[in-house]
Design goal:
Layout (H helix, E strand, L loop, with lengths): L2 H8 L2 E7 L4 H12 L6 E8 L5 H8 L4 E3 L7 H14 L4 E4 L8 H6 L4 E5 L11 H8 L3 E8 L9 E8 L6 H25 L2 E4 L2 E4 L4
Parallel strand pairs: 1-2, 1-4, 2-3, 4-5
Antiparallel strand pairs: 5-6, 6-7, 8-9
Helix pairs in contact: 2-7, 6-7
Length: about 220
């Protein structure tokens, strides 16, 4: 193998996807890896679901990706998270990508992957954290809405923001149509955010994630 080929292979970052449902953001990331901006820069090492009938797990299997099912129901959070972390390490994961993972992570899990866990939230954080963010924004009467990709820390929807995408709330919108239009932005934002992280061109400046001057 040539030196250039070896360097190219070393540059591919392994992603571990955690999901609980349909996994539409996971599929957008998979498409970006196959034919988009993440091609040659990232690969999906494993897709892990915590819900037995999660459609995203079936979708991952249909794509021929490694999958694991670690059911969380009825288990202590710290015990379940320890098992998930062990499987991620087994697959050599560099970054953990939450794609509709409907479960809060334990402090122990977050500490095991410092600044290596990404999440997407359907609001312009810090506005409207938690569940039903799109409905919260609509009911509040917001004129703009959007989505946020951020690093995960020990607080809910709180970690350093990687990027945000903004849309205008139309007079004809309702909470459902607003959520659908935000989801379209999510599918573009998540691969773009992952690209920023794996590029090595960005760094932390307090609570800001910015382009490094030397880059």
């Amino acid at each position: 193998m040539s030196a250039s080929a070896s360097m190219s292979r070393a540059a591919v970052h392994k992603l571990g996807i955690l999901l609980s449902g349909r996994g539409s953001n996971f599929l957008a990331i998979a498409r970006s890896i196959e034919i988009g901006s993440l091609h040659g820069l990232a690969e999906i090492a494993v897709v892990i679901a915590n819900v037995e009938d999660a459609p995203g797990l079936a979708a991952a299997r249909s794509l021929g990706l490694p999958t694991e099912l670690l059911v969380s129901k009825g288990r202590r959070r710290v015990d379940h998270d320890a098992d998930v972390a062990a499987r991620l390490r087994h697959h050599g994961v560099d970054f953990v990508i939450l794609a509709g993972y409907m479960r809060l992570l334990s402090p122990e899990f977050i500490a095991a992957f410092p600044n290596k866990i990404l999440n997407i939230h359907p609001s312009l954080l810090p506005a409207f954290p938690g569940l039903d963010a799109q409905t919260q924004a609509f009911d509040y009467g917001c004129k703009v809405a959007g989505c946020t990709v951020h690093f995960v820390d020990e607080h809910l929807d709180h970690g350093v923001i990687i990027l945000q995408r903004v849309i205008h709330v139309h007079e004809t919108d309702d909470a459902h149509t607003l959520a659908e239009r935000i989801l379209i932005e999510e599918h573009q934002a998540y691969p773009e955010a992952i690209l920023r992280v794996v590029s090595g061109k960005y760094g932390f400046a307090g609570r800001r994630y910015v382009l490094n001057p030397e880059a």
